[in-house]
Amino acid sequence: MSLSIIMIEDDEELAVLLSDFLRKYGIEVETFSDPFIGISAININKYDLLILDLSLPGLDGLEICKEVREKNDIPIIISSARSDVEDKVIGLSFGADDYLPKPYEPKELYARIMSVIRRYKKSDKEMEQKSSFTVSEDARTISFKGKELKLTQAEYEVLSTLIERIGCVVSRRDLIRFAPSLGDESESRSLDVLISRIRAKINDNSKNPEFLHSVRGIGYRLNR
Predict the structure, then answer these.
(1) Least buried of 80, 83, 133, 219, by fewest C-beta within 10 Å?
(2) Which residue has the higher pLDDT, 196 or 216?
């Protein structure tokens, strides 16, 4: 299994040690010691999981956990030397999926990562089964409530990307990156126009949407 993980950790030696270990299992890790840059990376790129330290320069990890969870459905494992039970309780209440106190063996982190990923994949599968959208990758078609939608190539690329990450906020940059038919028009209104056309085809009210929601300053989220 190939995974892409982001780690926000100010202990650079530990970050390198863990990254090297996880790479042996096909897990690529992008590390950030600056929490503000790390948050920006999460908003822009697609990662399978976040490993988050709590004691960071300039911003407490618990606040990061809360902010990330409010905008993104990425799995979160807190990795911290802070042993206060209250931190663990708050972290889990803010949406962290696991809390791993330091020090620990890298193989334990790997086991925790795989456990969290399995839970999310099971949840995603259950969500797909309940979804109003069905994608046929071979035919490159999408059905909505059992009826095939008549989509342009660009509309298919954008909608299939949103369905793949259903329930999560997908950044404008990611939507444009995974929709080559849009061309290199990231600064134009092309994506917004295309989203409007998709809404019209599923009879979704832009002022009070049921399915396709705009997340100001970030991108879009598709509900099931």
Answers:
(1) 83
(2) 196
